[in-house]
């Protein structure tokens, strides 16, 4: 029984070391200023009921996206990714979220957590990610 406990403790120590080492390497990548300066644009579509369409606007979507990132990954990743809804078309319910290269995957992963916007049940679906605003507008057919 004692040998089994020692093996389990050793295995947990190895897993802890590997996990911490992996997180440290990723934290070193984020310190690269190039990743924080270059922008990524996430084109999204909002799925919401017809009766709740008028409740949704750009500021409420922005607050919901920031809340979702904070809920999933915490304040640190909210500061790193710095997501902003820079464009939203109420007719087609499509928009563009601006973020940086270090945090765009975190923003995409947290979008399903934005389940309610201004009291309206909604779902934010990612269409595509691009590196330029001009290309993002072209994808949205603007």
From TrEMBL:
**Enzymatic class:** hydrolase
GO biological process: one example? tRNA 5'-leader removal
- Example of a GO MF term: ribonuclease P activity
Q: What is its main location?
A: cytoplasm
Q: Membrane-spanning regions, if any?
A: 6-24
* Pfam families attached to this UniProt entry: RNase_P_Rpp14
UniProt-annotated location(s): Cytoplasm
Q: Which UniProt keywords apply?
A: Cytoplasm, Endonuclease, Hydrolase, Membrane, Nuclease, Transmembrane, Transmembrane helix, tRNA processing
Q: What does this chain do?
A: Part of ribonuclease P, a protein complex that generates mature tRNA molecules by cleaving their 5'-ends.
Subunit annotation = Consists of a catalytic RNA component and at least 4-5 protein subunits.
**Family designation:** Belongs to the eukaryotic/archaeal RNase P protein component 2 family.
Provide the protein name.
Answer: Ribonuclease P protein component 2
Q: Which organism is it from?
A: Candidatus Aramenus sulfurataquae
Name of encoding gene = rnp2
